[in-house]
Write a structure and sequence with these properties.
The structure is a homotetramer of 328-residue chains. A seven-stranded parallel sheet of chain A has the order 3-2-1-4-5-7-6, sandwiched between helices. Chain A is of the alpha/beta class and 328 residues long. Chain A starts with a strand and ends in a 10-residue tail after the last helix. In chain A, helix 1 packs across helix 10.
Chain lengths: 328, 328, 328, 328
Amino acid sequence: MTRRIAILGASGYAGREVARLVAGHPELHTEFAMSARPGVTPAEPELPHDPAILPLDLDRLSQVEGVFVCAPHGAAAGLVHAALEAGTKVVDLSADFRLTDPAVYAKTYGLEHPHPELLPEAVYGLTEHARDDVSNARLVANPGCYPTSISLPLVPLLQAGLIDIDGGIVADCKSGTSGAGASPQARTHFGNVHDNFLAYGVGDHRHTPEIHAHCGTSNIIFVPHLLPVFRGILATLYVRPQEGVTCADVLACLDEAYAAEPFVRLYARGLPELDRVARTNFCDIAARSAGDRIVLVAAIDNLVKGAAGQAVQNMNLMLGLAEEAGLR
Amino acid sequence: MTRRIAILGASGYAGREVARLVAGHPELHTEFAMSARPGVTPAEPELPHDPAILPLDLDRLSQVEGVFVCAPHGAAAGLVHAALEAGTKVVDLSADFRLTDPAVYAKTYGLEHPHPELLPEAVYGLTEHARDDVSNARLVANPGCYPTSISLPLVPLLQAGLIDIDGGIVADCKSGTSGAGASPQARTHFGNVHDNFLAYGVGDHRHTPEIHAHCGTSNIIFVPHLLPVFRGILATLYVRPQEGVTCADVLACLDEAYAAEPFVRLYARGLPELDRVARTNFCDIAARSAGDRIVLVAAIDNLVKGAAGQAVQNMNLMLGLAEEAGLR
Amino acid sequence: MTRRIAILGASGYAGREVARLVAGHPELHTEFAMSARPGVTPAEPELPHDPAILPLDLDRLSQVEGVFVCAPHGAAAGLVHAALEAGTKVVDLSADFRLTDPAVYAKTYGLEHPHPELLPEAVYGLTEHARDDVSNARLVANPGCYPTSISLPLVPLLQAGLIDIDGGIVADCKSGTSGAGASPQARTHFGNVHDNFLAYGVGDHRHTPEIHAHCGTSNIIFVPHLLPVFRGILATLYVRPQEGVTCADVLACLDEAYAAEPFVRLYARGLPELDRVARTNFCDIAARSAGDRIVLVAAIDNLVKGAAGQAVQNMNLMLGLAEEAGLR
Amino acid sequence: MTRRIAILGASGYAGREVARLVAGHPELHTEFAMSARPGVTPAEPELPHDPAILPLDLDRLSQVEGVFVCAPHGAAAGLVHAALEAGTKVVDLSADFRLTDPAVYAKTYGLEHPHPELLPEAVYGLTEHARDDVSNARLVANPGCYPTSISLPLVPLLQAGLIDIDGGIVADCKSGTSGAGASPQARTHFGNVHDNFLAYGVGDHRHTPEIHAHCGTSNIIFVPHLLPVFRGILATLYVRPQEGVTCADVLACLDEAYAAEPFVRLYARGLPELDRVARTNFCDIAARSAGDRIVLVAAIDNLVKGAAGQAVQNMNLMLGLAEEAGLR
């Protein structure tokens, strides 16, 4: 039986990627895709996975069972509220419900949280770490792309106590340009990205509080970089293991956490590369010894496992479908 | 008065870049360019900066005053020896004379050093840190590209005692493909690099002993990555400052070290980007606070400041020319 | 019921693309993938669509119903012969059975045709133009990538007599690097392709006789170019219409030919772009008036509609499956 | 003796490229660079070739001897008028003075020509074809990038009567994105250009009347395409030679026209590639036989020979300097 969903904020990269995945999903159907910028003309000829983008009309939300909110932070919270009022399940791909403390939200995003009353029930949807809560949630806050690439390799090790947190954790992340959005701007002008590479947001990127909150420590230095590719994040993480902990211990811990997971692949040899995860929902992870540190390398497609794919994975659970449906 | 130089190993990227720089140099002239692979046909029509590449003929070395050895490690040492015998000054761009200990060389490069008797007199030519020694040297070992991108920002801070070495230093470096050479291989096949990004050599890259030796500490974790660009290295360095040391202290230290340097540019605001240093001999450096760490970002063109440009800078000093000649 | 197929020459780009498509095909199963270069280690971890690549063992061919031959020209013919002897259907992706005249083959490819006795029964498998013959064939010669991008827009117009052939036809084609194969070579070294663009094979490209033969005229000038992208061919074709023939007539003719075709999309407005056909089996076509000429623009993914996708489309017909199976 | 010049419209790619070239010019000095968009912050640290960009102040024009107008069409004409009033020589890089007929200008650019009274004295500055007129001009209209890539190979052949114009001429041109300007827009958003390729402006590109006017025939079909590179235009031209005219005749004609030219290189073998002309003022040209046509391939850097380089070349002549000054 087909389940009807809606996409709100459908003109951006995340919204389009949700539309693409739902088009190939055996049980989900995009009942409508809406945007505050509906003027976007569909490509010609209309591609099968490009539904027409309509103006926002929240009265129609009662026609669907699930809503993907792909609007920018700040704008998303109101759409989430409307969808919950209409009785649907909601996966919010924005940052609006990722931070539990509205004060941290206000400081990080520079505005008062529009619907703090919904924060307590929002489930942070890093699926592999919150499967049961996601399954029972009305509202899932889909994790940020950078936090996904960091939390998946790191959290099992932190929880197992294998890492010397006082030794400091470095998360040096590199992302393709799709993370910066579909709207033309100087930062993603071809002439400024092509044949170039740079660090940005050193010490003050907005994903930092999310990373600290969900890894359970603020002792993580996060520096993002902009790659001249469209899709993908590669995270290189440097941790100091607790005394006596070896790289084999780290690999064993990750193996225990993820051996049964359909979307996490551990490398016994070799190292992840962006093009092995492009257009997939996989997170590929490797660990290596280097001096007195363990180096973890993780790769995801920021638009799939870092956004739309994880959102579909969460929606599948919320609607009682097979978790992998539409993602293989 | 024009000074005659020779390029040995002229068919690779470093050799070609030396030829390009010398072609625009007001006082140097490429008397001959030789290669063990002379069959390489020059482009058609011959570009002004592409000298014909001849077979190796070491008898001609006495015709020049300076020799740039651009051959692979192992092969370079013999050419260096021959050039010194012929009475020329030598800048060796290979790794053969960068490590002072032949045992470390043997372990790192998998072969006995062909001319260990020359190691004691070789000067490690990170120009800004060894100007006087370079000026008086017969033989300069031109630093590796990655070590240059790490030593320039790091060494002044280490020497000033601003860094807590026990806190660990992370050097996360990203390089364009030209560092992997001009010979076609799977690693630099277009289909494997384009739209891709990856880490390699984690924990065992050959530049690691050179980095440790010239920074004076083995407490540096070095991980290189391969960017889908041709030129450039961006190094992101994470250090823990000594208690009480601020980012302003770090910037002041770098400013004292480099304010008068023609090829090092410090950023008071903004961050280095690869395309600002492409085809220049500059090393651009910025420092930022992030948590309890200082993050240093440095950018060079690996073929210029990381190879041919620094080699010309050194040769200028060795021949008594202005250090900046041919490099602006 | 699953139908078993084999892939011979599985280590190249075309073979891997067939493997990828068959992995997602509801009715085909790769029984084995073989290569004369079996040493290619599969990626680690093995991706679901990467079957292990075995050494060639032609005795096993009787275990399958269909064989995709992805070997280079010259080597392919013998494999085709062996597969037919074993009683399978064969789609040959090489050039060995595309030219009906063995003398033209010998002149074009510089070797005597290894199995000229099979030429008469080989069907040139431009599916849309040869559907019935393909359905009844034992052996289909899968068209070349460039010829596919030219024949699909051009042949209906030629057959309808809309084009003044004496006016000359220009086919200016631009291809990604995957057309040059998976083996590292100077032509596809990253440093030679990235940020570059060039024409090659002007006047003597090997696809020229195939284009002339299947368009039915030698009055087509074909010039290929190499794009710094991995996938895709964009063909820009310039034709002089017969007197009185308008661009609307041309569009009507194409519409009549292709309106019912699942894999050809005509543009009423807009123009094809490579990224709209990437990883699809579509051929997108537009026509525009320019001076006294009609300009046709066609785009395909050279690895899909220009190779593996069309091969699967043909195999589907040969095995009695739905033509679109595994290609949507 | 240094000659002072000004750059008006300095914030775009052409203006920046003029600034870069003048910074390396032995006899020109940028007295000031102005822009209607002066807010553009210079890079940090200021690069030597990045002069500060001031607001427009036309009263200062009398301080310089030469003015490079790099403003958009429409806006440029007024600046040209002001500079001439101030008594300077002017090279206008916009389209405002390239078309002699104001009616054609109005139709092509959609606005009345702001200063038609200046059209008669404007010299179309394709330097190699108008050296004497440029030397004596007050006002030079610098040719468009596409027209430069077409006129240089074509005009000598047309003037020598080697081409059958009735046979039709096809100019299939491919350009990097810098031709589309420095302002962020959807067309040059990284995600829309990278890994993509497309034709545009088929039959109605604004350079068409300029091409027709300066080649002296409207029988040229011009189709531009957008390459995923930053710099460069490669033009592939298809002409039918007059009966009895061979490719050798064509090459001899080009050789006679250009053998003494410092910035045109003819290929006896091999074909031009974009990266051989990048950041140079060269136009590389080859000719090949293909069927009954001659195929000409020409390559330029659109920002240098197609804009700023040719502008400096013209200004050199206008100020009585060596034509090659600052361009080698």
